[in-house]
Amino acid sequence: MAEDNPLPIRTVTFHYLKSMLTTRAATYACKEVTPECPVEGTIYGYAPNYSTTVEFCVIFFICCLVQLAQMIRWRLWSFSISVILGALTEVIGRILLNQNPYSSIGFQMQICTLTLAPAFWSAAIYLTLKHKVTVLGSQYSLIRAKWYPYIFVTCDIISLVLQGAGGGISATAKTASKIDMGSDIMMAGIVWQVITLTVFGLGSAHFLLRIKGAPKEELTFEAQRVWKSQKFWSFFWGIAIAFATTYIRCVYRVVEMAGGWKNDIMQDEFSFTLFESAMCVAAVVALCIAHPGYLFKEMRRGLNEDGSVLDLKDLEHREKEFF
């Protein structure tokens, strides 16, 4: 009696690829959601809520205007420009997300913009630690203050390259192996971003705990004044909220991508709205409210050769005398 042989692996693979490529071909033919092109056939499996998308776009745009005014007022160019670029990129991403759900180009652009946006305001967050270390005491930091933005912004760039490359490969792939390769590369970039944020958070906590435990007579007069300032702690908690919400958003992206494309979490609009949209809004709003221009004015100062802070007005006066 002949045994029933299981379907050969190659045959299974062939039929899977045939089905996937047929679906992809049908997807390219779809211009909008119709009975012949159901929304369930898209990668996200839903048509983004239009009113919600508009509301988030309005909030991000308002934050752009607020940061622009703060930049002109306080002249903290690096901080404000980073937040503005992040908020504008979020607006572009959400507009694209609400366009034709079947658009391959729209999907690729949306992946890139929503991936890129948090990296901009993360750079602003990294920059604040540099100035905290400079003012409160560089001797309590594991590394020199100026290296914080260099190290962590570079790590963010690596993450962006990986996520962008992976998303692009998956979106244009025509074979299962290419799709899996793109997903793996993108996942590596997201995990790397979470690791970067984790190391930054631990480094920040280590520095602040050392300051807290240090004898106050070891701190400079400027450091003691800042440490006791209510404005500084308002600034600190604002940055902490921005960091925490950005971190939650990045962890969500790891969970979202872990199941591959079209998984249940990726196709759940409520999860996306809560852990992506709401977290990003909270981060940008926190960076607008806790702006260092009026809560951490030391960030608007330079340094003398001996390490003491130098007010911006003094710098301008010296420049006039020099020229």
From TrEMBL:
<feature type="transmembrane region" description="Helical">
    <location>
        <begin position="150"/>
        <end position="170"/>
    </location>
</feature>
<feature type="transmembrane region" description="Helical">
    <location>
        <begin position="107"/>
        <end position="129"/>
    </location>
</feature>
<dbReference type="InterPro" id="IPR007568">
    <property type="entry name" value="RTA1"/>
</dbReference>
<feature type="transmembrane region" description="Helical">
    <location>
        <begin position="232"/>
        <end position="255"/>
    </location>
</feature>
<dbReference type="GO" id="GO:0000324">
    <property type="term" value="C:fungal-type vacuole"/>
</dbReference>
<keyword id="KW-0472">Membrane</keyword>
<keyword id="KW-1133">Transmembrane helix</keyword>
<feature type="transmembrane region" description="Helical">
    <location>
        <begin position="50"/>
        <end position="69"/>
    </location>
</feature>
<feature type="transmembrane region" description="Helical">
    <location>
        <begin position="76"/>
        <end position="95"/>
    </location>
</feature>
<dbReference type="Pfam" id="PF04479">
    <property type="entry name" value="RTA1"/>
</dbReference>
<dbReference type="GO" id="GO:0005886">
    <property type="term" value="C:plasma membrane"/>
</dbReference>
<protein>
    <recommendedName>
        <fullName>RTA1 domain protein</fullName>
    </recommendedName>
</protein>
<keyword id="KW-0812">Transmembrane</keyword>
<feature type="transmembrane region" description="Helical">
    <location>
        <begin position="190"/>
        <end position="211"/>
    </location>
</feature>
<feature type="transmembrane region" description="Helical">
    <location>
        <begin position="275"/>
        <end position="296"/>
    </location>
</feature>
